[in-house]
Amino acid sequence: MEDIQxxxxxxxxxxxxxxxxxEILRSFLPLLGKDPRTAGSLAELMVTIPDRVTARLLxxxxxxxxxxxxxxxxxxxxxxxxxxxxxxxxxxxxQERSILRPLQTDPREGFASGIDFLGHRLxxxxxxxPGRGLTVMHGIVSDSEGIVDFSQEEMTRKGLRSFFxxxxxxxxxxxxxxxxxxxxxxxxxxxxxxxxxxxxxxxDYLRAKSEIENIKKxxxxxLIYSHLQADAIAGxxxxxxxxxxxxxxxxxxxxxIEEEQIRPYADEVWEAEGSKIVLNPAQKEARFQGVYQKALxxxxxxxxxxxxxxRLEEMAYVLLKLGRExxxxxxxxxxxxxxxxxxxxQPNPFLFQLVIKSIFSLLAEAYEKKAKxxxxxxxx
Length: 380
What we know:
Blueprint: H1 4-16, H2 21-32, H3 36-45, H4 52-64, H5 68-83, H6 94-100, E1 109-113, E2 120-128, E3 134-142, E4 146-155, H7 157-170, E5 175-177, H8 180-196, H9 203-215, H10 230-234, H11 237-241, H12 259-273, H13 281-299, H14 303-321, H15 325-337, H16 349-375
Antiparallel strand pairs: 1-2, 1-5, 2-3, 3-4
């Protein structure tokens, strides 16, 4: 069984990271049913986490656990939290609870897709309402343009499932669960980006804005930092060196630098390849390397580098939720390396391979076009 101290530390981390009460409860409640003493020990340790969420979690434990000794420990922990100045709900008797307890609803849900090469992704917020279905907010956000599209609809659970499957079928990127407050935070960030770009947000978003603002929490760092040990990853050079291999993964297969940005460098490589000056392979490779380094320095010297840092942090979370922890660590390692200015001696391996891939994708198209033109020439 997992050490109870570890469980308590995880609860503390989850609360600090903004996880919902339901999500935290689901993570540890199955452990408590195996041994009542475990629940008592955890309740005592939770007093060291002075937060309103802790008090609500203890209340939920009280509802689920019927052992008299354990219930007494939980009530004592609630009293100790209250003595620390934490707001604690009144403990109702079973009779009072059966009369006064409100109709229970499913927890809010959040979902997010991976990010495409333009920085676009899908976000979902699902808000249940007792007896009248779900409010489903979904939209496309861009890290450079803000809110691209947004809709709010009322659905049944069955309708949501069908709609979700339809959207997933059209979207090449997988969608993973994400804490609703963080999804709301991403929507709010995109809204601010829209305002900064002087773009008019969709009317549906403006109507949903106040509810989104009520759900969101402020996060100092992307969500992945609440799930992976950043210090250990930052010191692992082997992970960073694997950064270029990320582009071989299906989730990054469509990533490339926009054509208008990379074309000048592709043209330079094309000219070097077709140069009338006779170059040996080593000289030609040296010219290519010079073009790659130039592209890196000019395209990723400032704000664009930080944009890719954030994209890779978000993609690390998606990879982790897909069960691909090693790739998640590599993605986060590459992202943290982008906090620093680019090193021309040891370029960031992911960006370096991204430049090469983007250049040769354009050149492959050019070679194919040229071959077709030649094949159309009628020989006499």
